[in-house]
What does this fold into?
Amino acid sequence: MDQILSVKEKESSESASYRLLDLRSDIPSRIYWSAGGLFFIFIFILWLFLTSLKIVSPLFLPGPEAVWDEFLRQLHEGILLQDASASLYRIMLGWIISTIIAVPIGILMGNFKLFEGMLEPFIDLIRYMPAVAFVPLTILWAGVGNSQKILILFIGTFFQEVLMIMDNVKSVPRELIEVSSTFGLSRFEILRDVILRYAMPGIWDTFRITLGWAWTYLVVAELVAASSGLGYRIMKAQRFLQTESIILGILMIGLMGLITDMIFKFTYRKLFRWLDGKG
Amino acid sequence: MDSPALEISQLSIKFKSNNQKEITAVENVSLNINSNEFVSIIGPSGCGKSTLLRAAAGLERPQFGKIRVDGHIVTHPGADRGMVFQTYTLFPWLTTYENILFSLKKSPLSTPEKEALVNHYIQMIGLEGFENAYPNQLSGGMRQRVAIARALVYQPKILLMDEPFGALDAQTRMSMQELLLDVWDQQRLAVLFVTHDVEEAVILSDRIYVMSNRPGRIKTMIDVELPRPRGLIDLESSPAFLSYKRNLLDLIRQESNFYQKIPLSEKIA
It folds into this structure.
């Protein structure tokens, strides 16, 4: 694949046969990735420009150097690592519990109309309820400890995840199931050896996407009665108008979300090499 | 006397359409296929020929009538019947070799026996060198060849083929017909082949059933007495082949809602 890409790249740069703005056309990967990098640099320079020339008050938007100083301060005091690990722990636990329950239920719903008919209307109802509205209830049910935060993350993730896994399972072509039944395989064997094998890449991608959503629920989860965590740090900074701490917290959540996303993308390519015809 | 490989008697299949109207897809169809016999069903699109084949595979439940394979009544899909679909049905996570081996999962054979069998079939379909290729590295014709090998490797009593070359281009289609003739000469078994292509039916079959428009009934049956082994080039220019083809086209034309209901033979004359 890399080889093919590099050959393509060579061809196109040598003959300049590509045009950047042709509809839907490929461009060399070098340009593709540079564009992404340059945009980050552009945003950073814009930020630097707006703040260092005092066009925007530091109260609303502190400069990069202020955020950097805050980063170093929190790092030295050990708060940053403590917050990040507390948040990561909650995210992972909430998401793992959600996934452990969503996978079997999603498989049942995707394969058996009975379970789909039974559960989908109920799940559709709940998934439109905002997770933040559950905060008072979860405190009542689970107290103010870690389990309340995990419960919020679970509520925010589970109901979407289960429907996505149902769709992943449904994406298996009917003919593939039918042909397997002509080999004399039982329903269970077809489920295990054909349906799940086929749906696995889609399910893995659902894992990646739902874990991303769990990160977006972090602040909601750490809204009440938390004493650590990136979301807690943001809410606390709001009270004292420490804008640089808010921005640092937001950046940290984005960065950690990006890292977990990349881990899933990387393992996806390793696990499902057959998707591009490699063993 | 052996029982026929496939015996369908007085079969009727009805569907409920979306607006709850009952549609009769197949009506009172009876047919027999002996072991070693290649039989095609042709008919206008939507005449229920695929439904009939799927019922024989055990993938549709008939309301009336019986289907027997080798004397046993069909209630669900099983390894006594091999099936090849029009769509590509290879498992994308398995190589050519593994795909063919997969269908032997329920076979009582030992592993070395299975491996020998798989290799034999890879050779038969001419895919040596592609054993370790994944389906998305194979052309459409190659994928269907693997599908045929995968359906034959577990030695079914009958091979059911539902327009298996329907998605292929004309060139590939011809070479697939030649390959199938060749494979069938090496492993004679009962075949039920559904197609809408008259030429294809004549090239391949010993007998052809023509189905009527919906509700699908057997309109007529034609014996194809062309000598075997058949070569495509010689066959297609032979007068006997052309007369079968013309005859069948006329029959099909009567069933289709053409804008001009003039028999083909008159048009040519």
Remarks:
- The two ends of chain A are 13 Å apart (CA to CA).
